[in-house]
């Protein structure tokens, strides 16, 4: 009991410091039937267009957390994402874990990436998703110092692993409710993005998005970007730290 009590005493001030308004966005409090669709690691030619087509077929919007390594190679595709009414957010200059980098480097590289992304899109960048969802109190401070807001997730599509599409959809829908932030991908980070996560999974991401939105529709839910969901909802924040 003594050790557990110590953990609780530690957790309480951490929640007070990093929870609430000072935490990371992990959902939306809303009375609307909105689920927040997010896509990481793009833009990726072929894959991103397929996702955009599926979103368009359902009248859905999404937030795309892009890598600068990808955006530089496909600026036209990045512009297409924005032109179709979707939200562009920052995933990083590359896909390296922030928790393995010095604090000052995290701050400088994230600031530079934000400025470059804003130059590419002509829009202000507010949302940030740390690669792999890994962040510590020190990296959280470094990222938020200039006003970026970390955004994490709830349900996941498991589109980085070799599982049937039906299992991906069933798992995400089972865990979703109004205000959930869903993690999907329109790309797969690789050596050109500073990491080696193994072979690229074979996933029809357009088909996956259509199946997901169809299943949500059967439950009266619709896909929205984070910005669109927040028009009538409020951010739900909490402390999120993992290495």
UniProtKB/TrEMBL annotation:
<dbReference type="Pfam" id="PF01522">
    <property type="entry name" value="Polysacc_deac_1"/>
</dbReference>
<dbReference type="InterPro" id="IPR050248">
    <property type="entry name" value="Polysacc_deacetylase_ArnD"/>
</dbReference>
<dbReference type="InterPro" id="IPR002509">
    <property type="entry name" value="NODB_dom"/>
</dbReference>
<dbReference type="GO" id="GO:0016787">
    <property type="term" value="F:hydrolase activity"/>
</dbReference>
<feature type="domain" description="NodB homology">
    <location>
        <begin position="33"/>
        <end position="217"/>
    </location>
</feature>
<protein>
    <submittedName>
        <fullName>Polysaccharide deacetylase family protein</fullName>
        <ecNumber>3.-.-.-</ecNumber>
    </submittedName>
</protein>
<keyword id="KW-0378">Hydrolase</keyword>
<dbReference type="InterPro" id="IPR011330">
    <property type="entry name" value="Glyco_hydro/deAcase_b/a-brl"/>
</dbReference>
């Amino acid at each position: 009991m003594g050790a557990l009590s110590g953990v609780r005493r530690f957790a309480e001030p951490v929640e007070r410091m990093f929870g609430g308004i000072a935490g990371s966005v992990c959902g939306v409090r809303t009375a609307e039937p909105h689920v927040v669709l997010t896509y990481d690691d793009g833009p990726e030619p072929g894959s991103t267009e397929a996702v955009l087509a599926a979103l368009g077929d359902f009248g859905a919007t999404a937030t795309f957390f892009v890598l600068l390594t990808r955006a530089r190679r496909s600026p036209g595709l990045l512009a297409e994402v924005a032109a179709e009414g979707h939200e562009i957010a920052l995933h990083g200059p590359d896909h390296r874990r922030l928790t393995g980098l010095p604090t000052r480097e995290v701050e400088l590289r994230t600031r530079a990436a934000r400025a470059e992304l804003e130059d590419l899109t002509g829009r202000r960048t507010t949302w940030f998703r740390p690669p792999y969802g890994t962040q510590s109190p020190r990296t959280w401070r470094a990222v938020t110092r200039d006003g970026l807001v970390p955004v994490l997730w709830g349900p996941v599509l498991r589109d980085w692993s070799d599982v049937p599409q039906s299992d991906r959809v069933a798992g995400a829908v089972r865990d979703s409710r109004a205000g959930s932030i869903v993690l999907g991908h329109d790309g797969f980070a690789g050596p050109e993005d500073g990491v080696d996560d193994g072979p690229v999974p074979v996933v029809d991401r357009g088909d996956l998005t259509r199946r997901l939105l169809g299943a949500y529709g059967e439950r009266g839910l619709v896909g929205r970007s984070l910005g669109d969901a927040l028009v009538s909802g409020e951010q739900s924040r909490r402390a999120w730290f993992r290495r």
